[in-house]
């Protein structure tokens, strides 16, 4: 494992416009990151790929996009006000605070002091609630405290009845959502792996309330989620499942497995698959006084469904795709991103930047490719070799060069990012050629 891999990826992200430290010109804001031009495209592609895979390509799955700010009662009912906590310890010497359950962080801090021949004494762990508060209202002193959602899950459960009434879904069915969540993390770290503002992508699948149905769906979801990472190019050896120990599970979870990625700092969580039982709907029924049951017209039974959840971090997945894609070759640096994720699907170059005929032809190709829905870049700076390297670094799968032969026979050179091999293709086949590698076979 390359120990500097994380730093290399962070530096590439800054240099090539993927991700910048949040509020950088003001000295930053801990635990926040801003996505730049290419990072925004990458993130958009990642979310779109998840949405197609989990929602549009499957049946009986519906989308939601709920508010980030919700009635504070939601968070009482969901248990977050009482127990969305992490154990916090403080170093008595320097007063820095850490999560007591993150052994690596604790060890690292003790080693820092040990170098100065100091021994660390820790305070007793105390439970620290990580919900982020905000104030709403227009009269000072009468403002209401609301929480920025700590997870996106609740926006789905509180709309369960709305989706039932409007879509009339048949059980089992899923409701999916992608969106921002906020946590007052004690120790944001490892770049975008743990930040205080991040995005989640989640699927809540409602099933009949029995173990056979629930575990069947649980296993199906485990496989499907693992397959998504693999289909998008993560190496198999870098992924694994890990079952949570009973004392590790969240307050609602009856069964919980993580998909983990082997990061430069060890195996760590990419996403969780949780059996939430009837926790959410029962609690929201109780706290709201609304009937959140489902009527099964086939069996004439009324019940509160159980929930199987898959909850992944958009930013975490994005980091893992970057780490997985980073390659250094003798004379070039390549991001071997899956073409579906790559910010640009191709780049178009006129061989020479001072030949109007070449430029005109190349611009036409660029425009036509864009019209077929492909995000394609233009580059006419420097020599061709430099342009190739520049596109390799940002993961562009194909470079298309328009040269003098193009003007005669309408063919172009297409260079493959990973093999650096070139072939000659008719202009009319370009779009199909590129579209082909964007398909996922799920
Ligand atoms: P951790 O133990 O790493 O804090 P968690 O088990 O609390 O994570 P969940 O509450 O299950 O995480 O959240 C689901 C997913 O949301 C996680 O698997 C992760 O991908 C993402 N996520 C959670 N917290 C953060 C964060 N602070 N920054 C970025 N992504 C996060």
Automatic annotation (TrEMBL):
| Organism domain of life | Bacteria
Task: Cite the Aminoacyl-transfer RNA synthetases class-II family profile domain residue spans from the record.
Answer: 7-343
Give the GO terms filed under biological process for this record. Answer: diadenosine tetraphosphate biosynthetic process; glycyl-tRNA aminoacylation
Kindly give the InterPro entries that the UniProt entry links to this protein: aa-tRNA-synt_IIb, aa-tRNA-synth_II, aa-tRNA-synth_II/BPL/LPL, Anticodon-bd, Anticodon-bd_dom_sf, Gly-tRNA_synthase/POLG2, GlyRS-like_core, tRNA-synt_gly
Q: Which GO terms describe its molecular function?
A: ATP binding; bis(5'-nucleosyl)-tetraphosphatase (asymmetrical) activity; glycine-tRNA ligase activity
GO cellular component, alphabetical, reads: cytoplasm; extracellular exosome; microvesicle
Q: What class of enzyme is it?
A: ligase
Q: Which UniProt keywords apply?
A: Aminoacyl-tRNA synthetase, ATP-binding, Cytoplasm, Ligase, Nucleotide-binding, Protein biosynthesis
Listed Gene3D superfamilies: Anticodon-binding domain, Bira Bifunctional Protein, Domain 2
Q: What is its EC number?
A: 6.1.1.14
Read off the NCBIfam families from this record: glyS_dimeric (TIGR00389), PRK04173.1 (NF003211)
Record-stated family: Belongs to the class-II aminoacyl-tRNA synthetase family.
Question: Know the name of this protein?
Answer: glycine--tRNA ligase
Organism of provenance: Candidatus Yanofskybacteria bacterium RIFCSPHIGHO2_01_FULL_41_53
